Amino acid sequence: MENIKILKGFKTPLTGMPDSSVIQIPDPDTVAVSAMDIPYIRPKLLVKENESVKTGTPLFCDKRNNCIFYVSPGTGIVKQIVFGERRRLQEVVIALDKNLDKNTDKNQAKKDDFIQFETLSKDSIGTIPRSKIIKLLQQGGLWQCFRQFPSKDTADENHEPPMIIVPLNGNDPFSPHPEVVLENETGFFEFGIKILKQFSNRIVVASRQSSLDRLNGFKDHITHIVPDFYPSWDPAVILYHLKRSKEDNRSWCIPVEHLVLVAKFLLSGRYPVKRVVTITRSNDKKPHMIARQGTPVKNLVGSLDENSLITTGRFNGRAVEPQSHMGFFENTLNIINDNQEEELFGFIKPGLTKPTASRTFLSCLSRDPKDLDCNIHGEERACINCGYCANICPNDLAPSFIYKALLSDEIEDALSYGLLDCCRCGLCSYVCPSKIELTQLLSQGMDAHYKDKE
Amino acid sequence: MNPLKKLIDLSEKHFTGSGKFNRLEPLFDATKTFLFFPSSKNKYKPFVRDNLDLKRFMSFVIISLLPVLIFGIYNTGFQAGLAQGESYAFIQAFFLGSRYVLPIIIVSYAVGFFWEIVFATIRKHKISEGFLVTGLLFPLTLPATIPLWQVALGISFGVVIGKEVFGGTGRNFLNPALTGRAFLFFSYPVSMSGDVWVAAGSTVDGFSGATALSILAPEGEKITAALSNSGFSLADLFFGLVPGSIGETSAFCCILGALFLIITKIANFRIIIGGITGLIVTSIIFYLIPGGSDSWMNASPLYHLCAGGFLFGISFMATDPVSAPGTNPGRWIFGFLIGFLTITIRVANPAFVEGTMLAILFMNVFAPLLDLIVMKYTVSNRIPNV
Asked: Taking the model in full, what pTM does it have?
């Protein structure tokens, strides 16, 4: 195991760490496949409302590559297809069949009915051509688990990645603990690593320091350890610190829970629907939860204050509504309080409990866990060149220079400053005292460049 | 609900939209957000944000200026007393000093805010907090004897030409307070030359009131001896009970402010340390050059550090992030060259006894170039990703 030296990141301890216990969430009335967390997709619907589907039935595919399917995580009837602005597909909602066992004759589909795909045997892996594995995964709705740098779009099947990064930890500081994800899945995990070796010679399995002591059974597979502050375990950060040549920029990554899904699917021929999720809330310790993919957010978060914000990653996720559903790539929900009070002379209070990455609040003297709210704490101003963003960027970027280059349309400059190394961790926006939406601007810059090239 | 908040909520409709005073919206908004810290819900990722904002950032510079300000007021009164042949106690000197210094500060803030509001109203943007600092820094660089109309003229030039014509705080490439001071320095050399800088109605005979940097030793005498003859011992220069601009005299108070800024990371320590290093190295080089023992060339680094406005400039002016470089190596070079230029101007150019202001303004102009060079270098070390 090799330590990766990462110096910069978000080092404030936070409240709301989930408990290591696990509870099972009963199947909800509806599940959905969300298109909101899928990068760059141009969805093409394959089902209509009121059509019945089984677990594994393709719901939509990507127009850019018609072989990549997004499949139903449950058996039932397509209840609703939700469109957003400009008729952008948001969700395909499926009402799960709950009482079908009694009157099977009326409906073709039965509870837990599923599409059986071709299976592989554990020992045959060396003999199966790469293209066949890809084909199977694409049909089964799991190829999108593989993402390709620098834009983290769905991996290009014709590309041979110089490196595949498997982060054991998710996008949020409190994403599910890898030990919970991998519990009783050792066989699948090891099979998954064998599959990865069909794609690339270099497999990087990285874990954050604090997860390590509960991962004894997996120590042989873990190749790298990263420090215990966000976003060290982000694959883009790991890639930046490991890459030695230009070619490495087009590596792949696959989160460990997806690797297990891929292995399970290939061995059983059945689309796996169970996910481990964590719910974080300040001053609360909620257990890890096992729920079906696409469970409604409200089933997971329980009762909450109507002003709070729910996100799928406080730094780099998306904001979700209680009635929307968990996305394929998402496994954390943060319930963030809205502190609506406008404090009298708030800008000069000593701030014993106000978390900060700077040293301008007394809170920076204590290492007690702090509580973050979803407020901006100030107003947008012009950049004052203070360099706070560069001081926290894990990938040694100077976001203030890049965003100025982007605003003045100097895309070449922005690229040479390392725009595509941006891991979209959100820390530059987090620290900015001028409250400039740096992450948003950099992200848009990267996306625009990527779409342009495509 | 807070009664003040109620009042603001009630009057909001008059200042916004089609209200009667909607042209004054920037002023209303500035007052409102000054009293009640705005904190709306985040719309974009990340959905959590740091508590530090520009208001607090700039307020911390003001806090760091308090020792300098209080001592400056006291010293103004104390020097006035000396000039009249009296030695005042702290309270007395402080009150006498306030009579000279407070009007300067009030004029500076009032005139500066007037321009800020004018530009904010015309351009329909919010009043930036940056002026809070400029409005206090500027008077501290002036002698207490300055006529108030010159203060008004100087701050107007600093705010309008130094900052607003480029788009306001964040877009100025020169430090606005120093721009205003440079304008006065070249336009009204009599008030700014550093010859008679003691505020007093009448002076006793033989009192010169000159600043340390304008001292030149007679033939055959060393500069240090000439300085102590004129009442500038190193200890006096360090603690600051000497004539000079309001804020610059006390090296001790400047160091206090600089430490506060460094500890809270509001100012970048690289600029301050780099500047002091540059000053020490350069003054040692000049010291080692033979000859010139009667001029400041022969003064030791400590004299150079404590005399004049170098510590004030490097702690509060050069660390203005907007006009300084935005890269760390750039900041080191920037600071070092300010120290170097300060000594070079002081020693090699007798026309300007004080080099700090010109050194900082000169380096402000070069800051973007330094950034460009540093960025070019860092880019060449990155593994390209295009």
From this structure: 0.92
